[in-house]
């Protein structure tokens, strides 16, 4: 089975888009990321990642209607595709398998 | 508080971001900015905005999405082919204009190429030598009490010894050289007179001679000789002459040790047709060893040097600066002149030389003048080209309209007009090259050069290419940029009108053209008059039938009486004499004369002659009498010229005593003035006459020229063989190598005549090119006003009226040009004439005549078109639409 590799940042962005649901576009994703992870994220980095995820088929996008704010410029909204959901699930499974395989004493040492 | 994102950052984003991404990216950025303003304040938000914008500066956002519609390719092959097709059709449709355009431009280009080659030749003088950058001549800068600063080429012998002993480590080569002189080379029956120089054995290597036979070490043997290829060929034919014996001046036997390729015309050493070893010169001139080796006051040597590869001339010059001065303890007079030794680099020999000790600016000025004239002729041709193509282009407004209506974009029209002008320029360039080829030999003849088209020189092509580009762009820019902006609706409807002032730039250009042409005409007339006035100057003696030959060999001496008797016996010779130096040259000058109230510091030309000299050259007496063999006392007699009489300021010079103290050994000789002759032009015919004295015998060298006056009743062609026969009999070892004095005298005008010929050539070309342009413009104007002329004719205008109407504009332009040209040419020619003491006046009629000439030519050019238009049948011109 050919698996598409998902980078760490890509994974987080993909998840964030999934969380935001209908309201995911450049600004919201960036702000959400900053709030949730507490790290400062480059605006262009997020944009580039969103585009790359779309190219990989994990995201779909469409232009929204004209807006009153931001000078009437339209927004590009992103939604997670079936492939994207599948990829997220797969990543989660892998993680859980790995966590499950962790010996209990190690887990305790880590304070978990 | 409302705050906007930084304008500049936004602009930058709009500039680089691909249009299909710009909306969302910019929107997001703006929204984020407002959010940040609220959270962190305007200042930091602006910083952040900048950072974010720069973050988007990456290929992903810069790359444009390919359009879904086919693009208009500006360089589609089909369209280019179409442009050229239309261009060729246009050229063929208007054959007259095309010819004027292409031929005029080609003429200008051909001149530019010739001048470019000439300048290249001047600037690349001496570069034939591989060590060009490092060769220099040892010279001294002296500060003369009376004459100011001077530069000396001739060095005393001990300086060469000094340099060779104490400074040798600063030079790669140090070469002593003799003066350049004619020598007789003979092998078997063959005798030739050739110029040569004797130099130290390192010379061939320093000058990097290209050896055909033998090697650079050819001058090691003191009895050897290196021949130039042409000398070797003349003496020995095509065989290898190495090790063949050769006799020099019928005195000394040498062996040929090598043959080198002839040095090209644009080298200083070109005149040397052979090189001999310096030692041989010393042994042949015993006075050097007897008197000159230690004498710091005898300047006769030329010293060349090559510096080390990493050294500079300035550095070596500063080191050897005092090489002469520190040895002058016993030479008070010379030490007072403070001689500073320095190296004159080879690169400066030709264009920054010295004439009589002071820097000679003439060669460099000549390069500038010729360059500027060339640039002007080229400018004239370009102006023509621009004028005609702009004038013509208005006719093509309709074509522009149609092209735009069926979908041409502006870029395509610009391309079209540019490709058209480039086509013409390239055609003109090819034609120019074809013109240059036949002109070049003729031009070489006038300019005394060996120019060739530099087919293999990358600079030549670089220059040509850049020239084609510049002319094409300049001439094509008006139609390309102006015509392509027309609105098709207006043009096609016919409401389009060219502005009233559209012809102003064209008129300015015509005035420029004629200003240049008229200036050149006036200058040419003045130059030709200056030559003429100098040629008509009374020379004070008779050159007709006078021949002279130099006594190059000792074999001539002591045979005066027998030669003279034999020559007179043939009946072909009227008289013969001997003199110091040629009649056309003032060979010697001295101080030390004392007379009643005289100053021994005054300089006189001093020439030794034989008794018959006056009769031979036919000098004319103002007072007194000639030398005569009947009076033995005449051997201490002096004949002076008018200039000398004036300088001496004696009431009755004849019979006055003159005492001459010889500067070298303070020997005193007493003379008596016998007669005063009219001034003889011996030096430059443009200069004032030097005060000169003639005497029979002196201590100042001897006679070295034979002058023969052919019997006026016998023609030269009959007389010469008879004279030659006498010489063959009496001096058999020497070739009979004579010169006609009048021919020799005419060489004095060579430089000026060359300038005169070139100026005439340029002036004719300038006026030709200008008229060509005027002809084109006139026919264009006549064509444009066809209807107007038709109507005027119907209403009763005569042909004369119409001719006046059409010619008036051009005549006014030419008159303006003449008014501008007069002061310009007066200024330059007045300055040029200042260097001649004997010079022509710049009189008003020269300007009037030149202006009248220019007007006549203009009228002839314009009238042809004007009268043609005026004679046209109005029915025809009004019927056509």
From TrEMBL, chain A:
Species, as recorded: Runella defluvii
Task: Give every Transcription regulator PadR N-terminal domain span.
Answer: 19-88
Give UniProt keywords alphabetically.
Answer: DNA-binding
Sequence intervals crossing the membrane = none
Protein name in UniProt:
DNA-binding PadR family transcriptional regulator
One MF term from GO for this chain? Answer: DNA binding
Gene3D superfamilies, sorted:
Winged helix-like DNA-binding domain superfamily/Winged helix DNA-binding domain
Q: Which InterPro entries has this protein been placed in?
A: Tscrpt_reg_PadR_N, WH-like_DNA-bd_sf, WH_DNA-bd_sf
Domain of life, per UniProt, equals Bacteria
Q: What's one Pfam family the UniProt record gives for this protein?
A: PadR
UniProtKB/TrEMBL annotation, chain B:
Q: Which InterPro entries match?
A: ABC3_permease_C, MacB_PCD, Macrolide_Exporter_MacB, Permease_put_prefix
> Molecular function terms in GO for this entry?
transmembrane transporter activity
Boundaries of each ABC3 transporter permease C-terminal domain copy? Answer: 372-487, 761-874
Q: Name one GO cellular component term.
A: plasma membrane
Q: Does Cell membrane appear among the keywords?
A: yes
The domain of life for this entry's organism is Bacteria
Q: Does the keyword Transferase apply?
A: no
Subcellular locations according to the entry: Cell membrane
- Tell me the keywords, alphabetical order: Cell membrane, Membrane, Transmembrane, Transmembrane helix
Every copy of the MacB-like periplasmic core domain together lies at: 98-322
Bilayer topology annotation: Multi-pass membrane protein
Q: Which residues cross the membrane?
A: 99-120, 366-388, 422-440, 460-483, 504-528, 758-782, 810-829, 844-867
Q: Name one Pfam family in it.
A: MacB_PCD
Q: What is this protein called?
A: ABC-type antimicrobial peptide transport system permease subunit
